[in-house]
Fold Aminotransferase class I/II-fold pyridoxal phosphate-dependent enzyme.
Amino acid sequence: MSLESVPEAALTGSLRDYRSPIGSDLVGRTAPFYQWQNLRRQHSVWPYARSTATAPTARCQARTDSGSPFTGINFASQDYLSLSSHPEIKQAAIEAIQTYGVHSAGSAALLGNTANSIALENDLSDFVDGREIVLYPTGWAAGFGAVQGFVRPNDYVVLDVLAHSCLQEGARAATQNIHHHGHLNLEGLTRKLERIRANDTENGILVVTESLFSMHSDTPDIGAMRAICDQYKATLLVDCAHDLGSIGDDGRGHLGLQNMFGAADIIIGSFSKTFASNGGFIAVKDRATAEYLRYYSATHTFSNALSPVQAATISKALQIVRSDEGRTLRRKLMDNILYLRARMQEAGLEVLGDPSPIVPVRVGTEALGRFASRELAAKGGIANLVEYPAVPQGGARFRFQVMAAHSREDIEEVVRVLEQAMKSADLEYRASYESV
Ligand SMILES: Cc1ncc(COP(=O)(O)O)c(C=O)c1O
């Protein structure tokens, strides 16, 4: 394809442009999004909604959202400990199907729990210092349900500006009193709380953060946040979706590394990364709080419970996470993370954040990112492109997600193809913009 033929409209614009369409025809007014998306698709600069045609292993086969097959070294799956194809986990899922069938067939508030989901609650509780566990159908549902379940219209939510969509949407559903502080900026957090408390000492304040931010791979000082929350009588929520199970010698993530499990009033997590399944949880400090959530957080009460297959899969994954095998896998994962980051840096690429299974690599403008993503896939590398508005404008990046099963060769090869892809993208970008 002649690279100059990519129209500017396919290299500019963002999802944000189509978020608030105008007009009385609710359905018809969505069409401009498809036109823009399709233009990008036609020029192979729409790298989203791809599907795997094999398990999400280190080398995998996949398809674009138009159905074109491609293969490559896979750094786009969040199977951090490579448990998705673990024989014992597959066996646990098969046994669950044989015993319970495949369906929970109800909300956990009615008859949707199974022996497997009850066992999972107990096992997970043991892993997180005996906290009470409430299960959710997805991590997103847990994050949303945690904020919506506790916060009422007169309360306040103060979020790190980069907190995940589930937490932001939960806040929007609960109250109009929403404040953001700069990413990891604890002075900003303090200023917000000070201002709120200067006018309102009656209502609640929920402070929301993540123990590992999923686009930036960085971590707050949770002890310092606890102290600030105490000063202003605020409640602290920590989302540990990405680091629980994958980080720390014992797999207890940054809350464990910082010895801060007791500091968070509310912990939410996901089973869709390290735990080889779908689902999420909220961990709170006592039974009374958990029981309240079971009937007042909508995504638990009014959504079907985890299936018995999911619960059995997650329990077995958790058992492995806590075992010597899990420890070995985490060490292998961290070796891979450090190796990938070092090789990227040697290649002159800018790696962001701290070592974690998420390795963000800066690309630059959205146009450059789109070219680089097309080139990377063509050369046999698979990594997710993250663009505005998920990250700041002009801050497009690849999010490499590392797995324990990656080999040194996988890492060396993906860095090599990324280097080539970035060079080609740069030429395409210049050609494209110089010809405008
Ligand atoms: C920080 C964070 N919280 C929550 C979620 C939602 O988890 P799930 O994929 O299980 O719905 C994600 C996943 O994208 C996440 O990155």
